[in-house]
Amino acid sequence: MSFQTLLDEIRKNLLTVLENEKISQIPFTLESAKEGFGDVSCNIAFQAAKTLKKKPNEIAPLIAKQYEKFLGGLVKKVEAHPSGYVNFYAEIGKMAQVIITQSQKTDFGKVDVGQGQRVTVEHTSVNPNKALHIGHVRNVVVGDSMTRILRQANYDVQTLNYVDDSGLQVADILLGFTELKFPLEPPNGQKFDHYCGDEVYVKTTEQYLTKPELQEKRNSILKEIEEGKSDIASFATQITSRVLGEQLKTCWRLGVSYDCLNFESEIVRSKLWPEIFEQLKKMELIKFESEGKNKDCWVILSEGEEDKVLVRSNGTATYIAKDIPYAAWKLGLVDDPFYYKKYSDQPSGKTLYQTTLTPNNSPKHDYSSNLVITVIDSRQARLQNIITKLMSQFSSNKKEYVHLSYESVTLSSETANSLGLDTGGKSAQMSGRKGLYVNADRILDALEQKTKEETKKRNPELSDESLSKIATTVAVATLRYEMIKQDLDKIITFDTAKSLSLEGDTASYIQYAFARAGRILEKSQLAPNFDANYQLLVDDYEYSLIKTIGKLDLAVQDAARNLSPKVIAKFCYSLAVSFNAFYEHVRVLDAEPELVNARICLVSSFQSCLRTALELIGIDTPSRM
RNA sequence: GGGUCCGUAGCACAGCUUGGAUAGUGCGGUCGCUUGCGGAGCGACAGGUCGUGGGUUCAAGUCCCCCCGGAUCCGCCA
Predict the structure, then answer these.
(1) Of the N and C termini of chain A, which has fewer Cβ atoms inside 10 Å?
(2) Bridge-based pairing state of the strands A298-300 and A287-288
(3) End-to-end Cα separation, chain A, in angstroms
(4) Angle (CA) A271 A276 A277, round 5°
């Protein structure tokens, strides 16, 4: 804790003041002050106005006066503003001392929102019949950033990636391979997931318009996949695992890793569904309709909306019957039918496991939690609400299923245009089926090329290998940052040309600040001595930077509590802004040795803070760029 | 038709959870800054009926309701 230390001190003293004044029941909030109003502002005078029957601007001076006896800690001045706020001014040197020293500890920026509680996060979950596009990237990046943030907030996080390998979209490409005879090997060494999505899927679904009989064929393929015994089924496994392998490469390229893969086909074959179906009947959470439009169906009743058919009149289950067992499994509400085996190593060093129904001697894993977070776009909100409600009825109230919803990524009219669609100036929804999307690997390639050129301009002496490495780091950062810097409920209108921008509120701006700081430290040829004279750091730009560093933990807490990764992105940006202003106005190396050391400590503190914060959103910090 | 979400500067967004001071940031525009620790930078200026109307309140961009505009979902498809 750091800026929090200041808040804690003020809160404690204010409570004593209230106690002395016999008005201790007044609730109040302390907040970081706006520019020009000191460091911390308190609304206590507003809150007390009614009780004391006085105006806020009469109460504030009284409080301020009473507080004066507590000055001398971190607070050097307290002031009643005519508006009614009580404003606190901190002792800069002491704040610098506290914050910079604490920033060197390994637990700096860690908070205890989770108290060690286990949470299961599912994200990515892309159908294994195509490559990731930028819409999927939003899901991946939100899920991965949230995972990192929750870990920082002392949650024990398990991440899952659900592979829908028994859906219609898989049947579509199988039909392409078996009936339409697409070659199994992509031309010119094309990535297999790109090939399946761009070629096989798009061209196969096109054919449904002219050859409706293909759709029947598709349905029979789907049935065979679900049953899992035929040659078609094993061919499906072969295709989907190959696509999955390529998809995971894209995810790893983005710096994302997982704990376990779940396959829908195994959920289907595990017999979890019949078991849960019986329980749902017993608990009377579902209803058999004997008349009406859903005659002879089992339905989930839903207030204010259409009932959802769960089991058709012919006795077969609908798709939602695949999602319910999975949700229940994640919450640990059913006996785990799975065995586990290693799927692969990951670039992060973490081993990726997968479920299997084939018995083995490998150790059992447990990925279930009382808190399950599922990252899915907002268009699936209705289905997710049904599942959330059903799970809350199905379990004890200490279990919680959360749909972490985010708005979709659409294409700007210019970008849609470049893909051959005239939208009349409007943005357009992406469509895998129509081939209307921006492929994730390709946008990363374009970003890498651009950033490599930019880096080369500035660092002509660097080797091609170093340049590529830096370019990868900046490219991934840029894409990730664009995907989480805004609120989850805002649509992102993606424009390929604009996405290549590296100025202003972008990841490269932030990384650049880090690199600049590194160059100062490098040039100084000094190791910071943190037993420094922080009283020397009196400049406004220095102080503003120190304060921002001290607020990392507040940002982590906010982001974790509200499941809002953008809070960390905003923090990183404001930290970089503070540093760049400092850099422009304060010369670190042109000062007396004692002051140089104090400033070097600050620069070093800035670096460790920014590195920690950027890690929470999966962004690396190049020392040069 | 019903449900959910969005509406803040030319454009893209923050601020709304927890009401309070002077509504912030980026892009774009105009004008400046480099024999200096890296200009992917810094500074200045211009640009706002916070969609409309009501309500609650001493106080509303923030809370409540109506309306308008936009997005999205609503199959015995997955």
Answers:
(1) N
(2) antiparallel
(3) 32
(4) 100
Please give the structure tokens belonging to residue A314: 């012919």
Distance of C1' in B9 from CA in A200, Å: 46
- For the record, the structure tokens of A62 come out as 């009284």
pLDDT tens track for A512-569: 999 999 999 999 999 999 999 999 999 999 999 999 999 999 999 999 999 999 999 9
Using the CA of A489, which nucleotide's C1' is the nearest one?
B5
Lookup: tokens for A182: 């697409």
The answer to whether A550 and A3 are in contact (CB under 8 A) is yes
Main-chain dihedrals φ then ψ at residue A471, nearest 5 degrees:
-60, -40
> Given this model, what pLDDT does residue A27 score?
87
- Rounded, the Å distance between the CA of A505 and C1' of B29 is 18
Residue A1 clears pLDDT 70, i.e. is over it? no
- Tens of pLDDT, residue by residue over A173-213, are 999 999 999 999 999 999 999 999 999 999 999 999 899 89
Using 50, 70 and 90 to split pLDDT, how confident is the model at A36? confident
Q: Within 13 Å and on the Cβ side, how many CA atoms surround A452? A: 14
The pairing of beta strand A492-494 with beta strand A260-263? unpaired
What single DSSP character describes residue A436?
A: B
What is the structure's pLDDT at A430? 95
Residue type at A382 in one-letter notation: R
Q: If 0-12 CB within 10 Å is exposed, 13-18 middle and 19+ buried, where does residue A171 land?
A: buried
A574 nearest nt, CA–C1': B25
Torsion, Cα of A609, A612, A614, A617 (10° steps): -140
Structure tokens at A358: 């084939």
- A239-279 pLDDT, tens digit each: 999 999 999 999 999 999 999 999 999 999 999 999 999 99
Looking at A254-368, list the stretches that DSSP marks H as alpha helix, in order from N- to C-terminal side.
264-269, 272-282, 320-330
Share above pLDDT 70 across residues of chain A, in percent, rounded to a whole number? 100
| Residue (of A358, A357, A366) closest to A330 by Cα position | A366
A142 CA to B2 C1' distance (Å): 31
Please report the ipTM that was assigned to this predicted complex.
0.97
Q: What is the pLDDT of residues A395-407, one digit of tens each?
A: 877 899 999 999 9
Given a contact cutoff of 8 angstroms between Cβ atoms, the answer to whether A56 and A45 are in contact is yes
Domains in chain A (CATH in brackets) are 3-90 (3.30.1360.70), 118-280+316-413 (3.40.50.620), 414-499 (no CATH)
C-alpha distances (whole Å) from A610 to each of A143, A206, A461, A532 are 21, 49, 27, 21
Contact A598, A532 (CB under 8 A): yes
How would you label A564-603 residue by residue, b for 16+ Cβ within 10 Å and e otherwise? bbbbbbbbbbebbbbbbebbeebebeeeeeeebbbbbbbb
In angstroms, the CA of A558 and the C1' of B16 are apart by: 15
A296 nearest nucleotide via C1' and CA? B76
Helix axes A44-52, A56-67, angle to 10 degrees: 120
